[in-house]
Amino acid sequence: MKFDKKDILDIESLSVEEIQLILDTAETLKEISSRPIKKVPTLRGKTVVNFFYEPSTRTRTSFEIAAKRLSADTISVSASTSSMVKGETLIDTMKNLQAMNPDVIVIRHSAAGTPHMLARLVEASVINAGDGMHAHPTQALLDMMTVREKKGRLAGLRVAIIGDVAHSRVARSNIVGFMKMGANVVLAAPPTMLPPGIEVLGAPVTYDIDEAIEGASVIMVLRIQKERQEGFLFSSEREYARYYGLTMKRLDRAKNDVMIMHPGPINRGVEIAPEIADGPCSLILEQAANGVALRMALLYLLLGRR
After folding, report:
1. In terms of Cα–Cα distance, which of 284, 206, 209 is closest to 240?
2. Residue 35 and residue 30: Cα distance in Å, rounded?
3. Which of 224-233, 242-251, 254-263 is least confident?
4. 140-155 burial string, b = 16+ CB within 10 Å, else e?
5. Is 209 exposed, middle or buried (0-12, 13-18, 19+ CB in 10 A)?
6. Residue 304: strand, helix, or coil
7. How far apart are CA 16 and CA 180, in angstroms?
8. Better-predicted residue by pLDDT, 240 or 14
9. Could you report the per-residue pLDDT of 113-152, keeping only the tens digit for each?
10. Rounded to whole angstroms, how far apart are CA atoms 77 and 84?
């Protein structure tokens, strides 16, 4: 199958076949990271610009490592070190970056839709590394890769997504992605953390975490995103942990081979118990490892076949 996308902006715009190709390519490239010399010349001469308007550890680092393992040149720019602090608009910043002729621009921004706008303005390929509360396609893709790697399939699995759905771009992309690939997704959150109309994405909603966990093959726990909340959505972290925190007792309701995921960073003892986060059913570190391979696959598919 030919991959003819210019940009990776969201999961909605990817077909089932394209997602399968991305996951297959990532699995092939994952082996490179286990070599003594973790580098291949595939993208030699290509330039990747990482522009992160918001803080990031896993996503930013994995994009940089992914590009370097494919021998691409990387430049990292943050809002605090760019001319935006001098009053330059984002559009002018991006036009100036385009004038330097990069091949890919990876962007994370607090405003939803920013990568889509940028993709219309520049000739370089644009990869959405997270835009506001809208989408995080590369996270959803690496999550699907991780589950498929461990379970051998995505279709038919019960995936419970629990926590701050209202403020989670990861949740939105994963709902669309896992359902597109045939999984059965269920959402559980306090009423204050469920956005109005989320049901239109097709996943059933419950306020009861135990109901969502029942029979789940995968449990995805979301971080409470205090930085995006305009008011108090629960009385205390202790109360949240009591009613919506993932504990060992609650885990008994899931399947015996249940896998636990979390996009990070983790609030230990709040949304997830430390013994679960560090336990044998946790895929949290596998998610981080697969993030490099998945982003290598995207860079290769966007640039390596040109």
Report:
1. 209
2. 10
3. 224-233
4. bbbbbbbbbbeeeebe
5. buried
6. helix
7. 7
8. 14
9. 999 999 999 999 999 999 988 999 999 999 999 999 999 9
10. 11
User: Which ranges constitute the DSSP H helices of 158-283?
Assistant: 169-180, 209-213, 237-244, 248-251, 274-277
135/133 Cα distance (integer angstroms) = 6
Query: What is the spatial distance between Cα 300 and Cα 77, in angstroms, rounded to a whole number?
Result: 22
- 3-class SS at 174? helix
Q: Which of 67, 201, 218, 89 minimizes the C-alpha distance to 135?
A: 201
- Radius of gyration, alpha carbons of the chain: 19
User: How confident is the model at residue 230, as a pLDDT?
Assistant: 52
Could you tell me the strand order of the sheet in which 47-52 lies? 73-78, 47-52, 104-109, 125-131
Residue 219 class from Cβ within 10 Å (0-12 exposed, 13-18 middle, 19+ buried)?
buried
Spatial distance between the Cα atoms of 162 and 170, rounded to a whole number of angstroms: 12
Distance CA 73, CA 67 (A): 7
Position of tokens 């399947």?
255
Q: Give the DSSP H/E element, type plus range, for residue 160.
A: strand 158-162
In this prediction the pTM is: 0.93
Q: Are the CB atoms for 98 and 123 separated by under 8 Å?
A: yes
CA pair distance 177, 294, nearest whole angstrom: 15
Tell me the pLDDT tens digit for each residue of 204-240: 999 999 999 999 999 999 988 654 445 555 667 888 8
Residue 207, both tokens = 């306020």
Query: Residue type at 65?
Result: I
- The closest of 139, 171, 121, 145 to 6, measured between CA atoms, is 121
Q: Which amino acid is at 113?
A: G
